[in-house]
């Protein structure tokens, strides 16, 4: 909410011309989110301090937005206190000429590199202090940051994501302002208030010439795009308000893992496909089809005459439908595939009478006490001739340093089984429901730990 | 001429063109009952005479007839129907939907038809066509009965047609006007001693003794002084020691009007034997035949005929009490109830079998009751069971008396069972039925799987305390995901709490909510006294708790070893740590034990509505992400702002100084507000290291065995719970409360003062409720509760600076209408779920309501209300 810029230059009073704001005045500007004020706490012979203060109206940013902004439209909101996209908007409006490097009175000073220090109170940073340094240092800034505690009375809640940040560099004022203008919304990595899609583009235009060579270019642009429009269904979001957000700060490790995860995922789908082909099935179910990766493979194979994808998340089904371009399939292709919103906790007659079902990485998302319902729904009622089921092998987790022996692979996993546990469970299914079972490893097999994914193929006569 | 046709029938008009079928139909039937092929020709082709449209027209006709018959509507087919193959369709449809086919034949002189046709200007049918149709008709007349028509009427002259009157008679099985009360008695199989004992125990008395032994019409006549009626589920005969006495007794009661009886398969088989049909003497028929053989030879033929007539005259099943009760020997599917066809009779006698036999050589049965969804209660017998067990509103009352079990009656509408044990085992069952008690009841076993069709799509749920509640399809879809991914086992989930509306917005300076509006609302609803309960700031928790694990098994069908469950307002398990939940439930149970709660309420389980503190225990993530985060950001940013503004103030002069001083003051006050905000949320946070750090404040005893406690006032709830809480003050917190008399200004002032005191100490505020649990106001039910929150608490709802005048003014415009409507729907659904549970309805019926509450919670509504 407060940007303080200290410029060292003699005569310091000239700096006022660059900002185009009189040092002996408090100047206020009306903004879409409230007001912005410019004032000078200090002007000495050699240094000039300018403050840009955002006065965010906490009621105005919420009212009239409740329906469209969902949970983010809270009165209890950090926006009035932080440097966010609002600060970018204020820089571009209040310091327009300085941002453009123009000054009618002191054009040569505008083009001169001078020692500049910018203090930002406070900057919400997702990704930690490391990310802060990684963004500013390639641009030539020295960075100091002080992290605020979440609540000093409750140290067990940990640190906050808020930093008082000081960056310094010898450069033109326009460069400093441009960097701040583009980068402020990036740190936050949350939804940008009052920044429409076109404004995001305008912001990125300012990155011309320097963003392209920035080592974190991809991460910076990704953060812009990620929150342009949250499509998550509102009604569901309201029900899940007490669900922890996906783990923060995981992006770095994610990148390191992604290649391996990708290949395991593909191998898993390939193995499932092989098992379904081997079963001779022509009517197949993909139970927990998610965004439709397996469905896409099934569609390509004429063996599968009827394909039904089922998922409990209507949002996932929307994405699957878009990815598979269901509305643009030929009529014969369209006849082959159906997406159903359904749940494996309920008996569903629409799922009866199929040759085979794939249940890929699904059961570990069920609470153990609810597994029994799942078993009945699938093996007693839907009762496909073949069931191809995969789940993580917990033993393998130790080989991954970001998971380890103690934790699970995903925050929504309710359990992960060892090979023994999985096989015991499968044997129980065999006994109770009259199936046969065989097991297949998926992924690289460690002699002691097995494969990362375990697969069971259940068959009945 | 008067003809009688069954109320539920498919009436097939048969007659050539020009025989006057349409006119005839219009005279005797309602326009919507008549479906004409010509009309359907018009529907599909815009031309009622188009012969090219015949195929499509008959498809449409067939479709509509099927829908009507499925819905139990008498339907008249207005088409020539002169060929057997065209009539076959309708007979088959009638059979499919168990509606009796009736043939009404207009066999008028050919001349009449030709004349009439010639007089018509809308169609042109040659005399040869009519001649052909006429001869086809006449050729087919003889075969109508064979085709399957149960009623055939042929009208030969225009005069006969003109004079005809049609009377619709109810089916034999339709006894909806008999409302009981009834005593429905299971398979007797000649166990007349036990039957006499049972009747006596049920209060029946011998009102006459008929002479004429050993004839059928002899022996005692039983009747109930209060007019109750016995209903026998059949199988009076075979196997037992006094077969004929049993038949005599039942026959006498029927004649006297004190009993009804449906036939069992044994009764029918005996009748067939008596009529000389080839019948194997198996399954106890020998006992019946031996008794008949003992009748003196000179009266035996007469006796046998009478007996066979009696047994054959029994009606397959009865629909009683306005359709609420169905009695049949082997049960009755919903779509067959009150219908008449051979299939209905077969089902009534034998149930549904797979056609295969089991290890004991008995037919393997399809369990129709498992999928039964009808509204009528079905009472049946046929297959002996150790004890009568409810399953989806059906109950089998054959407790195998002749096999050494008992003779059982179910009292209706009381739903009580009265049994007389067998004096001895008269016959060894071929399949042991007195098997050791099952792990869980048949209903619980059936409830292990819920069906998606019971929750999916748009739904409309009737509630007994309010109106129907409609659930929108998209909300049901959202709830399906939430329920599937996060909710506890549905067997524990017999209730979800409703949302609660705040009181109307206050105009008092500096306040958004004040008790005046809460009191005013209830006074306006005609409530004389309200209860003000301290509002705890934690997380809503529903505590389901059984006396022990065995109760969880027997009453809830939970076999995991759990003996209770604590869940949140969205049905999630409250504690992620299983051992913590067990320890927590044990503590609560200990207090219930210590205060004699179970015996006092005559229950072994209870559903408590509670608040569980601290807030930080469950809302940790929300606190970290939102509340503490805002506090952290503000605490870090605001002092820097104030300091810089002060520095600038030191430099500025005159008007600029004044401006910056004002701005500095504003930010100083924001800094102060932020500190108040932080203080406010900290009130509701403390670390939890052991159970004693948790505080549970129960405030409603929602339900116990047999009761949903809506008839008890809140004082009872508060006081009963206070005693429980006092047993364990370290964990349990009694809720403090005040009663306010809304017709006494002084009382109201005291109530307000109490609220002021509570909130100034950092309390969230209070909840105001009518003293009675349910209050009917000017237009139906009043809000069950409204909350009135304190000004400091509201900072964590409306933000640190909400108290600034400019902000307050804007915040005051908030609409409560939708919130209140939602609160009402959810309240009604929650109670409906509990009522259905205590009445031991199938789980799907309870789940439907609870699912509805969750779906409604996904409605977009201002989350700050």
Structure commentary:
- The complex is a heterodimer of chains A (461) and B (865).
- Chain A is elongated and about 90 Å long.
- Residues 65-72, 228-236 and 241-256 of chain A have low confidence and may be disordered.
- Chain A folds into 2 domains: 2-239, Hen1, N-terminal domain (c-terminal autoproteolytic domain of nucleoporin nup98, 2-Layer Sandwich); 260-459, Vaccinia Virus protein VP39 (Rossmann fold).
- Chain A contains 16 helices and 15 strands.
- Chain A is 34% helix and 23% strand.
- Chain A has helices at 15-19, 66-69, 85-94, 96-99, 107-110, 128-136, 173-188, 197-205, 217-226, 234-239, 251-279, 293-299, 314-323, 331-336, 371-382, 419-433; strands at 2-8, 27-31, 34-43, 47-56, 114-124, 142-149, 159-171, 283-287, 306-311, 337-341, 346-347, 356-360, 386-392, 436-442, 453-459.
- By secondary structure, chain A is an alpha/beta fold.
- Chain B has 865 residues and is of the alpha/beta class.
- Chain B has 6 domains: 2-169, P-loop containing nucleotide triphosphate hydrolases (Rossmann fold, 3-Layer(aba) Sandwich), CATH 3.40.50.300; 174-437, Purple Acid Phosphatase, chain A, domain 2 (4-Layer Sandwich); 441-493 and 831-856, no CATH class; 505-536 and 735-815, no CATH class; 538-614 and 691-734, D-amino Acid Aminotransferase, Chain A, domain 1; 617-682.
- In chain B, 40% of the residues lie in helices and 19% in strands.
- Chain B has 28 helices and 37 strands.
- In chain B, the strands form 10 sheets. A 6-stranded mixed beta sheet of chain B has the order 8-14-15-18-20-19.
- In chain B, a hairpin with a 5-residue loop joins strand 16 (353-357) and strand 17.
- In chain B, helix 3 packs parallel to helix 4 (84-96), helix 16 packs across helix 28 and helix 27 runs antiparallel to helix 28.
- Chain B is globular.
- The chains are: A alpha/beta (461), B alpha/beta (865).
- At the A-B interface, strand 3, strand 4, strand 5, strand 7 and helix 10 of A face strand 23, helix 16, helix 21, helix 22 and helix 25 of B.
């Amino acid at each position: 909410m407060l940007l303080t810029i200290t410029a060292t230059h003699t005569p310091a009073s000239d700096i006022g011309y660059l900002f185009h704001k009189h040092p002996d005045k408090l100047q206020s500007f009306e903004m879409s989110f409230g007001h912005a004020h410019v004032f000078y706490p200090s002007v000495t012979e050699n240094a000039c301090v300018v403050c840009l203060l955002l006065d965010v109206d906490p009621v105005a940013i919420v009212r009239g937005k409740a329906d469209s902004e969902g949970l983010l439209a809270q009165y209890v909101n950090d926006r009035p206190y932080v440097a966010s996209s609002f600060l970018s908007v204020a820089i571009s409006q209040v310091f327009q000429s300085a941002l453009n490097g123009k000054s009618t009175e002191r054009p040569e000073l505008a083009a001169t590199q001078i020692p500049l220090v910018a203090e930002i109170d406070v900057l919400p940073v997702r990704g930690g202090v490391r990310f802060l340094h990684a963004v500013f240092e390639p641009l030539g800034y020295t960075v100091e940051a002080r992290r605020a505690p979440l609540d000093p009375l409750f140290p067990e809640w940990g640190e906050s994501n808020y930093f008082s940040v000081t960056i310094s560099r010898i450069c033109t004022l326009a460069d400093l302002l441009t960097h701040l203008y583009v980068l402020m919304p990036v740190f936050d990595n949350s939804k940008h208030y009052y920044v429409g899609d076109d404004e995001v583009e305008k912001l990125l235009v300012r990155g011309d010439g320097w963003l392209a060579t920035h080592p974190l270019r991809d991460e910076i642009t990704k953060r812009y795009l990620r929150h342009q429009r949250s499509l998550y269904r509102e009604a569901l979001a309201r029900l899940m308000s007490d669900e922890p957000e996906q783990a923060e700060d995981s992006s770095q490790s994610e990148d390191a893992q992604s290649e391996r995860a990708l290949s395991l995922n593909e191998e898993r789908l390939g193995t499932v496909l092989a098992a379904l082909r081997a079963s001779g099935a022509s009517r197949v179910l993909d139970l927990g089809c998610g965004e439709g990766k397996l469905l896409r493979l099934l569609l390509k194979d004429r063996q599968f005459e009827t394909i039904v994808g089922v998922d409990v998340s209507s949002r996932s089904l929307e994405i699957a439908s878009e990815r598979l371009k269901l509305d643009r399939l030929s009529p014969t292709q369209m006849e082959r595939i159906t997406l159903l919103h359904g749940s494996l906790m309920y008996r569903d007659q629409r799922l009866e009478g199929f040759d085979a079902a794939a249940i890929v990485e699904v059961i570990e998302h069920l609470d153990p006490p609810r597994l029994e319902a799942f078993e009945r729904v699938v093996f007693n009622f839907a009762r496909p001739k073949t069931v191809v089921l995969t789940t993580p092998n917990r033993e393998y987790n130790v080989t991954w340093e970001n998971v380890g022996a103690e934790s699970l692979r995903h925050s929504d996993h309710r359990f992960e089984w060892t090979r023994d546990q999985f096989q015991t469970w499968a044997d129980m299914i065999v006994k109770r429901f009259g199936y046969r079972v065989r097991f297949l490893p998926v992924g690289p097999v460690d002699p002691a730990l097995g494969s990362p994914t375990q697969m069971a193929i259940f068959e009945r006569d | 001429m008067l003809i009688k046709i069954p109320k539920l029938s498919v009436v097939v008009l048969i007659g050539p063109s020009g025989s006057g079928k349409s006119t005839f139909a219009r005279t005797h039937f309602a326009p919507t009952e008549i479906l004409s092929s010509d009309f359907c020709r018009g529907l599909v082709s815009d031309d009622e005479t188009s012969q090219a449209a015949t195929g499509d027209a008959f498809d449409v006709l067939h479709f509509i007839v099927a829908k009507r018959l499925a819905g139990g509507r008498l339907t008249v087919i207005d088409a020539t129907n002169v060929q057997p193959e065209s009539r076959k369709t309708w007979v088959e449809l009638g059979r499919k939907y168990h509606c009796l086919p009736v043939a009404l034949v207009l066999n008028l002189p050919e001349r009449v038809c030709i004349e009439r046709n010639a007089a018509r200007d809308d169609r042109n049918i040659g005399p040869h066509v009519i001649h052909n149709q006429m001869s086809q008709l006449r050729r087919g007349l003889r075969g109508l009965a064979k085709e399957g028509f149960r009623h055939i009427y042929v009208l030969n002259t225009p005069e006969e047609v003109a004079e005809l009157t049609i009377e619709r008679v109810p089916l034999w099985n339709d006894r909806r006007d008999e409302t009981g009360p009834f005593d429905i008695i299971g398979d007797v199989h000649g166990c007349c001693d036990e039957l006499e004992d049972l009747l006596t125990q049920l209060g029946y008395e011998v009102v006459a003794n008929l002479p004429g032994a050993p004839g059928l019409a002899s022996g005692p006549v039983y009747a109930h002084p209060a007019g109750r009626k016995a209903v026998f589920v059949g199988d009076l005969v075979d196997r037992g020691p006094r077969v004929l006495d049993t038949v005599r007794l039942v026959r006498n009661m029927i004649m006297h009007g004190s009993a009804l009886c449906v036939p069992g398969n044994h009764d029918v088989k005996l009748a067939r034997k008596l009529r000389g049909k080839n019948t194997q003497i198996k399954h106890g028929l020998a006992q019946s035949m031996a008794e008949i053989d003992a009748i003196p030879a000179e009266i035996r033929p007469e006796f046998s005929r009478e007996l066979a007539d009696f047994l054959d005259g029994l009606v397959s099943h009865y629909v009683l009490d306005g359709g609420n009760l169905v009695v049949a020997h082997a049960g009755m599917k919903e779509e067959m109830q009150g219908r008449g066809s051979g299939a209905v009779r077969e089902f009534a006698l034998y149930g549904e079998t797979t056609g295969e036999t089991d290890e004991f050589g008995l037919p393997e049965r399809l369990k129709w009751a498992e999928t039964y969804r009808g509204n009528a209660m079905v009472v049946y017998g046929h297959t002996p069971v150790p004890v009568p067990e409810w399953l989806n509103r059906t109950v089998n009352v054959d407790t195998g008396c002749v096999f050494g079990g008992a003779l059982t009656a179910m009292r209706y509408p009381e739903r009580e069972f009265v049994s007389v044990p067998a004096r001895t085992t008269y016959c060894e069952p071929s399949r042991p039925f007195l098997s050791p008690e099952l792990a869980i009841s048949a209903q619980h076993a059936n409830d292990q799987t819920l069906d998606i069709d019971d929750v999916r799509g748009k739904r409309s749920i009737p509630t007994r305390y309010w109106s129907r509640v409609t659930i929108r399809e998209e909300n049901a879809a959202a709830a399906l995901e939430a329920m599937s991914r996060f909710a506890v086992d549905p067997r524990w989930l017999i209730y979800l709490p409703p949302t609660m509306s705040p009181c109307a917005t206050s105009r008092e300076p500096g306040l958004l909510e004040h008790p005046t509006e809460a009191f005013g609302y209830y006074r306006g609803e005609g409530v004389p006294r309200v209860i003000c309960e301290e509002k705890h700031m934690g997380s809503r928790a529903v505590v389901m708790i059984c006396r022990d694990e065995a109760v969880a098994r027997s009453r809830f069908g939970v076999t995991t070893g759990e003996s209770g469950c604590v869940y949140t307002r969205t049905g999630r398990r409250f504690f992620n740590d299983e051992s913590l939940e067990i320890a927590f439930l044990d503590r609560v149970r200990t207090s219930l034990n210590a205060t004699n709660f179970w015996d006092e309420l005559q229950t072994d389980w209870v559903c408590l509505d509670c608040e569980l503190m601290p807030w930080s225990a469950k809302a940790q993530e929300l606190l970290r992400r939102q509340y503490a985060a805002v506090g952290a950001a503000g605490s870090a940013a605001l002092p820097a702002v104030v300091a810089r503004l002060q520095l600038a103030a030191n430099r500025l002069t005159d008007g600029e100084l004044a401006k910056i001083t004002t701005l500095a003051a504003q930010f100083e006050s924001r800094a102060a507000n932020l500190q108040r905000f932080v203080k406010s949320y900290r009130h509701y946070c403390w670390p939890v290291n052991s159970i004693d750090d948790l505080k549970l404040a129960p405030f409603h005893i929602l339900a116990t065995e047999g009761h949903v406690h809506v008839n008890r006032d809140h004082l009872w709830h508060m006081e009963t719970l206070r005693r429980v809480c006092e047993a364990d003050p370290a964990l349990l917190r009694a809720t403090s409360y005040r009663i306010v008399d809304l017709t006494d200004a002084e009382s109201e002032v005291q109530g307000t003062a109490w609220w002021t005191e509570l909130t100034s100490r950092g309390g969230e505020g209070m909840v105001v409720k009518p003293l009675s649990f349910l209050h009917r106001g000017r237009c139906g039910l009043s809000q069950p509760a409204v909350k009135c929150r304190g000004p400091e608490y509201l900072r964590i709802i409306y933000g640190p600076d909400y108290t600034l005048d400019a902000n307050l003014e804007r915040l005051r415009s908030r609409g409560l209408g939708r919130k209140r409507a939602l609160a009402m729907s959810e309240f009604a659904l929650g109670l409906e779920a509990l009522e259905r549970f205590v009445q031991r309805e199938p789980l799907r019926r309870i789940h439907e309501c609870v699912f509805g509450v969750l779906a409604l919670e996904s409605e977009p509504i201002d989350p700050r209300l």
